[in-house]
Design a protein that fits this description.
This protein has two domains: about 200 residues, HUPs (Rossmann fold), CATH 3.40.50.620; about 30 residues, no CATH class. It is about 25% helix and about 25% strand. The protein contains six helices and eleven strands. Helix 2 links the parallel strand 4 and strand 5. Helix 2 packs across helix 5 and helix 3 packs parallel to helix 4. The protein is globular, with a radius of gyration of 22 Å.
Length: about 250
Amino acid sequence: MPMDIVVCIKRVPATDATIKIAADGKSIDPAGVTFELNAYDEFALEQALRIKEQLGAGSVTVVTIGPKEAQKELRDTLARGADKAVLLVTDKWMFDGASTAAALAAWIKTQPCNLVLCGRQAVDSDNNQMAGNLAARLGFASVTEVVKLTLDNGVFTAERDIEGAREVVSCKTPAVISCQKGLNEPRYANLKGIMAAKKKPFEETPAQLGAAALEVVSLTLPAARAAGKILGNGADAVPALIQALRNEAKAI
């Protein structure tokens, strides 16, 4: 049975980027920041491609909400094997899971879709709310933070880690599944894929954004760490270390 899969991705600052706060005090300054595909979304894309390969039919469409510069990340997904890319254009920094889900749901409802895959969370906003919110708006089943996923006769069996145990659940399509690290090993684009990506469909349309459900009041950088302290050398430093751990750090 062919399966039409939508993969939701996000363009995020590289995790090793030096972040500066913008003049408004509520967003990051993009100047000099390298952006990349959200790491968790790589697992979602890889799983979508594997499902299509398993079935031997269907389509993988990748969608994101972001600025025109997000074309780079979308074209990367095409080079890895996605069939189509869609950019819902906005200049806003998308930190609000609810308004993001609303805009994505509005677009997905216009598309053939059996399954939505996305990353566990975006590494910039880290709110881990979009997948469940999106499923509720679409009326789809939902399984989050999946570390193992199998498909048999239209039924997914998913495994997810919970505190002290591994939970196994099953659901039928349509469904929204968020993907956790360890689900798979993402592939990278090769030269053949990069060349093929140039001929694949790429669409741009304005994002349909409603009122935000969350407001960022201010952003502040974390306090600078205190300078390190050298207590001595070798075994002679052990008593001083124990005293510091007990009386200063309160760790013992």
